Records
---
Amino acid sequence: MISAEEHARLENAIREIEDQTAGEIVVVVAGQANHYRSVPLLWALLGALVVPWPLIWLTDLSSARIFQAQLAAALAFSLLLSWPALRFALVPRSIKRARAHEAAAREFLSRGLTRTREKTGILIYVALAEHHAEILADTGIADRVEPQVWPAIIGRLAGEIREGHLVDGLVAAIGEAGAILARHAPPRFDDTDELPNKVILL
């Protein structure tokens, strides 16, 4: 997803921004937010529910034979739909968006962004397969910033990703989020770097 040189570029961007603020920025880039392992089973069960009806109407098969055909269909559907590309394609967009948001919230908690001294941590999260990006901010900064600021940054980041410029988009988003942090959470004389500046790839 990101080369070693691009990784270093992003880390430098985070480091330079954090020199200007007491806030913390963490960037997480996921290839896919969720594996959607329940999707093949759900579709297989739905398909298996349909299988008996044409057999009942059009054949003289016994109930036991129809039941066996239903089990065989469920197994075949589940194996076929376990192919990752097909499985992902069957997931509704709303579910993809919800799973990506849940993944972002988990990363926000697990990366320590709620444990900074002034509650001014920011997560920039991107799930490439779901075409999803969002910014989550802790209460110390979220309460001071108008809510529409973050979607505007994400909109520009999403545009860069669509053009194939993931790293350029992230650098710009880091800069914009950092400028907001610098305005609302300026650096303190005793400020320390509370979280690693590395970009997390999942």
Note: The radius of gyration is 23 Å.
---
Amino acid sequence: MVEPGYNDDVSSTVALVVDRLLEQLGESVERIQRRITADIDELRGDPRLVELLRFSVAGNVETVLTVIRYGIDLDRAEPPTAALEYARRAAQHGIPVSALIRAYRLGQQEMLERILEEIRRSVADPDLRLAVYDRISATSFAYIDWISQQVSDTYEVERERWLEHRNSIRAVRIREILANDDPIDVDAASSALGYPLRGRHLALVLWTEQSDSPGKELLRLERFTRAAAEALRLRHTPLFVAEDTVSGWAWLPIDRVRADPAGTIRRLAETTDNSVFLALGVVDSGLAGFRRSHRLARVARKVATASGAAPRVTAADDQGIAVAALLAENVDETRRWVLDTLGALASDTANDARLRETLRVFLQESGSYTTAAKKLVLHPNSVRYRVNRALERRGRPIGDDRLDVELALLACEHFRQAVLRPVG
């Protein structure tokens, strides 16, 4: 028999536990995100999708805790916006819906473990512990069933819409060509695509942010691709295909010998729509070059987006991009390694940024103060002072670990705040 007031004790204790969990929301989200990306291969890779996944996790955790805290009926709850948008992007990228549902189950498991930890810390009475956990877990399971259905429905609608949007001979054929390195009938494929695969190519990956006018993002990207072709005075029409609703792939048929096509595109980007970001491959020839230039453009985008604040243009042949792409495979581990390698020099301050740049150029110029001074437009004594100061900030001189220091400085240059220690 339940004693009078027992249910009130359970409700007040549930509220106490949930309030404490809401105070630790960021930590909970971080743990769930790590668990999901560690266990589900399909949800790793594209930095933008990983970032949106974090917002989806945060929205779901906050929503379910609010539902539990105030006893809200799920029929009156609203799915988190980021969770539905993540389902749409997953559909566009061909991520199976089963991976999304598994992510919710893993997230629930991780969250219930945190709930149990908090109950053990907050509640002494074993019976009350059990009652509180039962109430929270029951609502948690009901929420997962409810949100999984919402996400599945959103995914299926978007997948069908996206396939209709993408279901043209050109888009399907391009993805088939890129999917493997098997030989194909180049002339037949060129005819189907309306693009000369036997020529020389420069691949681009373009992306933009979601705008206030959904559906017009791809038009902006196509418009920039055409403008690039006009700036290069190409004889043939460029090739463009949507990757998802806010990004696309393009190839420019470099039919004339140009000294610096990437430089022309950089200058165009500086004077046109500042909402368009792009990554460039390298100029290469034939079918193999068509594929290789695209692969390198995707590598460049991976580096560009790893910092969370991408530059307008990143090229695959920019200094250090190939190595930076390897460091971008696991930015969290790279950050820890950078902090271990550079110490206080890896702090996110303007002064440390100047010291890092001076040290990077000094090492690049084989330890010559004079040559580094010319490149930095400084007096050699200023270079010497900054190098010494950089080593003081690092906390130890450079010895056999010179290569590590150079790579860590490269990571700071490309990934910025993603690997630097915040001020304070």
Note: The mean pLDDT is 89.
---
Amino acid sequence: MTMATGAGFTGATPSLQRGKSKGGLTPFSMQQFTPAQMNLFSTMFSHLDPSSYLSKLASGDQSMFEELEAPALKQFGQLQGQLASRFSGFGSGARHSSGFRNTMNQATSDFAQQLQSQRLGLRRQALTDLLGMGNQLLGQRPYDQFVSEKKPSFLQQIGPGSIESLIKILPFLF
């Protein structure tokens, strides 16, 4: 097995694939990655797909945030219950007081601000990750592509003028 080097290739000799000739030029493509590297390359590109988790986060997909925020919302509900219980312990009517309403409003406002801040941070990080991954992947060269000029046939090489001359002198040769 022949070893070759090049754009990240460290395995067996890469396969050479010939394309369809056009205008006297024949395109060729040579795979530079091993099958394992190609598989990894394809897998990494799937993370850039619009339906990927990272892309959904970057685009601000509401369902992604609902999924991420569900545990925090549950915990916040429990904290509200604990806060209500604490105010109930102060006696009758404490849960209807302005102190209770102000405390609940402040807790709700703080919670909403924290969630919004975390959403923005997640979106920013997802965008940064997508851009970085995209730039890194687009900088790879899994295939080397080149063209080769098609060699003219023997008759094309001698040209039409030579054939006419040969026809004229043929009777004299025999």
Note: The CA atoms of residues 36 and 154 lie 44 Å apart.
